[in-house]
Each structure stands twice: as C-alpha cells, then as structure tokens.
Specification:
Fic-like fold; Arc Repressor Mutant, subunit A; 3-stranded antiparallel β-sheet; 6 strands
Length: 449
C-alpha cells in the first residue's frame, strides 16, 4: 500500500509501533479469493493472532488490549512468473510507451537541460505528497540551497528529489540491485528522523493501520521480516528481465516493492523512484522523467484501490491498466509544461538582452531553471566564475526582472526565479483539478526508535 506517516505538530514521526510479540509458530492459511481469473501468481494470506504489549506506555486503547486476529500477506515470487495481459491492458501499455517516447522526442537538444530538472522535481515532490509530506516548490528549492535552515518536511522532500536523481543515475550506471535500492533509501533518509534506519531492511513487523500499537483494522500487513531479503532478491531478478513490456515491468516492480515493504519507513517514495529506474534502463525515459506521481497523487483514492488489488488479490491487469493511464496523462501534460518552460526562457532571453552565446550570462538562464533559489556562491560554483562575478550577473538578472532578491543586507543573499514556481504550481494545480480530490494521507506505523 501507500507509505505515509502520521505527523506530530513538530513535524516528526510519532515513532509508530512494531510488533512486541513474536508471530506465532502456527498459523492458519486462508484461501485468497480472486473475483476474476488473472494470469499472475497469487499472494498468500495468513491469519495470525496479535498479542498486544500491555507493558508499553502509553497503553493501547481499550479495544486493542485483547488478542485479535489479522491477515499477513506474503507476496508471490515473480522472478520467472509468466504474465498474460488482457487486450485492453496490452493496448494501454503500448499507448503509454508511445506517450513517453513522444515526450522525449518533443524535447529538443537546446531545451533538454531546461526541462529535465523541473519535471524530476515535480515527480519527487508529488511522490512525497502522496505520503502526506507537503511543502511548496519554493520551500523545497530553499531547502536544497540551504538544508540547515530548512524546515523538517521541506528537507525530507528535498531528499526525495535527491533520491530520484540518484535513482536515475544508478539506472544509467548499471542494473537494479538490492544495494542500489538501499543507497536510494540512504539518500532519502539523510538528515531526518529516518536516518538511523537508512538503507537497512526492516527486522521487525510493520503494518498500515490507524493504530500505533499493532495491526488493528490494518489495511495491509506486509510479509514477515525473515522473508524480506529473499523477496527483494526475487524482485531485482524480475527487474532485470527484458521479455516484458517496460511499462508493465515498471508497474509491477513498484507494486511488488510496496507489497514487500522492505524498509521501516520511506517505502512509498523509494518504490516510486524504482518506476523511473526501470523506464530509464529499458530505454524509454532517456531524456526526461514523466511525472507519473503527479497524476497518481491527484487520483490517490484510485491509486490506493488498484495497488491494493495487486497486493492483496494478485490482480495484475487492473493495476497495470491504471498505471498505464497515469503514465499517458503525465507524458501528455509534461509536453505542455516543457513548451511553457521553453517560452519562459525565450522571454527571459529577451529581457536580458545581448550577450555572447555560451558566456556565463547566457548559461545562467539554464542554471536558474535548475536552481530557482540560488546564492552567489552556488552560481559561482556552477558557472565556474568568482563570487564577485556571480553577484554581478545576478544583479543584471535582477534588473531585468528575471529574478528578485529574497534577502536584505549584504550577508547570506539569495535570489528567486518566481516564474519557475508559478509554472510548476500551475502544472500541478491543473492535474489536481481533474483528479478525484483525494489528497489526504494514509496513516502508517512502521518504525520504532
């Protein structure tokens, strides 16, 4: 299921709750009911008894103080599983692949660097929003420029952007492995409450439930910790296959990862980065990332419903169809955003006026799209000039009303390219306006200190 955390007023996790009693030696195997036949191995559901810990503080609510049953779901092994998609699903998968190819073909060489960063940021930020982590594009850009001064949530989402960047680079460098997945999680966790668990597969039971104390009325309880290593090895073996359509493979890698839920926290955000690892490795997203999570976030109820259909019933066709539709829409909307970014940059060029092609002033235009919050030190480092020269360039862009200075005084000066944020906000709002209006976060209780 979707990974999220219940937040306290100070922005930190409430710590969640792991099982304090061991999973019983004996369990009752329940048949998995499938409403329709699907060509995919079925998950195994096991009824277990949860014995609450009555020595903990605070105590569980009264209704959770007696032993109760719950269903633990063990995903199937899929490394060599045959997949037979319905005709409708196959058609959607083909359409989604063509949509990504068209998006990448629509971005010419001159605008490639201008489009990559905004789309990747939109994807990572929307992925975090699904988990209930919310901050503005401006706050996240500030967190990337100065993490130490950022609020906790903005810093966490900035980490999500970095994790997405790492994932794309890993896809270029080599195959998807469990070590790669661990490294992505380390980046996600850096400097947050999750850091102590960064890159480590869980060793305790977790669940998705309104309860802090156990899987009471749990929407989903993933497999036992002892099964995680094996299932993750099976997952990366499946991800290495080339005899499956890339869109279907990306969808299954994501849903299977969520079903295993290998980390104490952060599973949703890591799982959505894996979508783009697969798409890049299979040769579809070679230039730009389609912001699939932006569409999934806008239609969160449907996302949860179809993801659950895969995790709990093995319904691969419904899930892949939903994923393919989200991919088609995201690619189409990304083309529109790319055109708007190109138009904005052309307008900036007019405002700046004459300059030498390839000069620091000329290159600064692209830098601002990638770093819409920027200091003189950052500009100097990227452009390869002195800070004095960078401040002079920033002054020219300020006079041309491309950027504005956000700070007063001579120290710690920072500038903002507001029009970049305006475009990204309008992009997300446009998708959300057509969504199902379900933006609230689920509750999750996955880790203990």
């Amino acid at each position: 299921m979707v990974d999220s955390v219940k937040r306290q007023p100070n922005g930190h996790s409430n710590g969640g709750g792991f099982a304090t009693s061991a999973i019983p030696e004996s369990s009752v195997e329940l048949p998995t009911e499938i409403e329709e036949r699907v060509h995919w191995p079925r998950p195994r559901q096991t009824e277990l008894i949860w014995t609450p810990d009555l020595t903990s503080y605070p105590l569980p609510p009264q209704r959770e103080r007696k032993p109760y049953s719950y269903l633990l779901t063990t995903p199937p092994e899929i490394a060599e599983a045959d997949i037979l998609l319905s005709g409708e699903t196959s058609g959607l998968v083909e359409d989604a692949a063509r949509a990504i190819e068209q998006l990448n073909a629509s971005v010419d060489a001159n605008h490639y660097e201008l489009v990559v960063s905004p789309l990747l940021r939109a994807e990572a930020i929307s992925s975090s929003r699904i988990e209930g982590l919310r901050a503005s594009h401006r706050s996240i850009a500030q967190a990337r420029e100065n993490p130490a001064a950022a609020k906790t949530v903005a810093r966490e989402i900035a980490n999500s952007v970095s994790a997405m960047e790492d994932a794309i680079q890993f896809a270029i460098d080599g195959p998807l492995t469990t070590d790669v997945i661990r490294k992505i999680h380390v980046t996600l966790a850096r400097g947050t409450d999750l850091e102590a668990f960064g890159g480590e597969f869980r060793t305790k039971q977790n669940w998705i439930s309104p309860s802090n104390h156990g899987p009471f009325n749990a929407a989903y309880v993933p497999p036992k910790p002892d099964d995680v290593d094996h299932l993750m090895n099976d997952l990366v073996e499946f991800a290495s296959r080339t005899n499956i359509p890339a869109i279907a493979q990306a969808a299954i890698v994501h849903s299977q990862f969520e079903a295993v839920h290998p980390f104490a926290d952060g599973n949703g955000r890591v799982g959505r980065t894996l979508i783009h690892v697969v798409l890049r490795r299979r040769g579809l997203s070679m230039k730009v990332v389609p912001p699939i999570s932006t569409v999934l976030a806008a239609r969160r109820d449907s996302y949860v419903e179809f993801l659950a259909a895969y995790q709990q019933r093995g319904d691969v066709n419904q899930w892949i169809s939903h994923f393919a539709r989200a991919t088609i829409e995201s690619a189409s909307r990304a083309e529109g955003l790319s055109s708007e970014i190109a138009g904005m940059v052309d307008e900036w060029s007019t405002r700046i006026g004459r300059r030498q092609t390839g000069s620091a002033v000329d290159r600064m235009i692209k830098v601002l799209v990638q770093h819409p919050i920027i200091s003189a030190a950052t500009a100097a480092s990227i452009l390869g000039v002195t800070e004095i020269a960078a401040r002079r360039i920033l002054g020219r862009f300020t006079e041309s009303k491309v950027i504005r200075e956000m700070t007063d005084g001579r120290r710690n000066r920072v500038w903002a390219a507001d029009e970049v944020f305006d475009l990204l906000d309008a992009f997300e709002h446009g998708i959300a306006a057509d969504g199902d209006g379900s933006a609230k976060a689920p509750t999750r209780h996955l880790r203990s200190k």
